[in-house]
Amino acid sequence: MYKEIRLSGFGGQGIGLAGVLLGRAAALHGGLEAVMTQAYGPEARGGASSANLIIGDEQIDYPFVQEPDILVAMSQEAYAKFRPTAKAAAQVLIDGDLVTPFPTDVVCAIPATRLAEGLGRRIVANVIMLGFFTRQTGFLSREAVEQSLTESLGPKLVPLNLKAFAAGYEYAVGAHTGAPLHGNVVLCEEIENLGHQTTLYTLDAERYCHLDWISALWCFICHGFLFGTLAGTAAEP
Amino acid sequence: MHGDEACAEGAIAAGCRFFGGYPITPSTEIAERFAQRMPELGGVFIQMEDELASIAAVLGASAAGARAMTATSGPGLSLMLENLGLGVMLELPCVIVDIQRGSPSTGLPTMAGQSDVMQARWGSHGDYSIIAYAPWSPQEAFDLTVLSFNMADRFRTPVLLLGDEVIGHMVERVVIPPAEEIPRWERKRPKTPPPAAGVYHSFEPDPEDLIPPLPHAGEGYRVHFTGLTHDERGYPDMSADTHHALVTRLNAKIQRYTEEIIRLEEYAMDDARLVVVSFGCTARSARRAVREARARGIPVGLLRLVSLWPFPEAVLRELGKRMDAFIVAEMNLGQVRLEVERCIGRPAWGVHHAGGEMIHPEKILAAIVAAAM
Prior knowledge:
The structure holds 2 protein chains of 2 kinds. By secondary structure, chain A is of the alpha/beta class.
């Protein structure tokens, strides 16, 4: 196993911490080798931030991520900046409320920030994403990451973060049972079936049965509006 | 933990309780870690006014008996070099960490370089020998910092740790052994009590290994230290004979023990016909390149210079007789290649980059393929 992973978002979301937690889970509790590098320079809160990990079962030589196999994007800017750096068939995990993916991209989405607000602390969105990541990528056990969390954070912060982790982890499970989807987001279990193909998500009736009716209606309205606009544009001289 | 933190923790594990420094990217995290850790351990962290003062404070702390160190990068090392020579002349053990960045001058503050190799060896004026190690991982940043302190005390001399920005800022697993498993070689200390009258001969070499015992300030010994050429009492002695004897001994006490000091790591060398020589972060790319070349059936091995100074002349001379080709990969324009060629007596292939980004394994692989043809 050899995975190049890029976690990205905006400065202040705790992307670096998520990277450290993930790396520790792999290197200290997952029986794997891990290296993390971060862009180093005049970074500021709000700018695009990333943490880059290579996780493998052999000692890692070259420590820099070149073409991620897995990309996590928690902001639109980070997605736009880093999606082109990842493999075309990369596994892409996004905060679905904050990122609108390219129309041709296949992604797994979780409203991490909204869920974090639901837990009362927006700052745990990174840990919710970590839970989602753990479940979706499947190469680390839930226990390994939970142990990493417990060891790395101050004792007072542990219960909330374990809760956040569980929310992300269980959301991934929930997605299989028809949780709300956005735009061209594909159900997580379908990613594997798609293999290396990155397809344009097309509107079809079959897919709408996975959506609740409000989302479905909203999609129809949006698309209707879009097609209407396009048709209008095409008619212009 | 990242390489800079691991380096600071290595120093602390080795018993270092004095850090005098002037923060500079990419070594700043070492100073930060010390600033955080020293108060809880009863040690001293001083942010000095500049690098000149930093190393002066470190030498003073060493004379007082502390394991002491400073950390800097190329531009700071340039400023420390004058007093590095003083450390050599006064034979004061200390560790100077240089997390290299793109140079010369201010260069690339946030990006890696490996171009202080010759500065480390020859930077201060005069003839002297130096010990330098080059970690290739955060784990080694820990281990080699411990070793540097031990070597400094063993040979009563400053030791350099030449890291680089990649290793300094890279996060990897670091295993810190229990305190009782951290090796500690003590300084050679006076065997006799302070003399009733007159000064203690703090530069009188032990005939066995040329290293004089070092009394610490406050122990009752009257000592004299000067950067001028001095006799065994430490008093200035402006004679050519004394000077020649002193400088020769300062070199000999290290050159005589090169085998004890040098650390090398071999990878896939058993049946190798070609050898890649590399160090620090570049050696990671070199190992990947060697693996890939081996997969293509090229009999190539890696000689990693864990220690840079003293240079492993005997090993390279011997390899020079057996190997078809040498490839030196380093993030500078040929500083180690020069040494390798001096030892093997013929040209070597060079994979060089002036710094800023790590040399990619592909470039080293291309050189291996070319050299194998």
